[in-house]
Amino acid sequence: EPFDYYMFGQNYIRPLVDFRSSYVGNVSLFFEMEEKLNQGHNIVLISNHQTEADPAIIALLLESTNPHVAENLTYIAGDRVITDPLCKPFSMGRNLICVYTKKHM
Hints:
Helix content is about 40%, strand content about 10%. The protein has about 100 residues and is mainly alpha-helical. It has a domain at about 5-75. The chain is globular.
């Protein structure tokens, strides 16, 4: 049976998030985004994340209010997330566009 890497990543990171103190600011924007996505529009979010766990944390914080957005975000990442043995299992559960830098080509 196929292994669910998405849930693996979610369940691994879940205990590390303090949900009582964490929140999504401007959550109304995510409701608006979900409505636009359901209408067939495209949306691009740009952020400068700091850790490999950020996609899982974003999905965890959105799973109760916007599960469709949480599960269907597509991330752009450097090649390390699919070549590093510690990162790869978490990356396999995400919609991912991998960018290879010039120095690795």
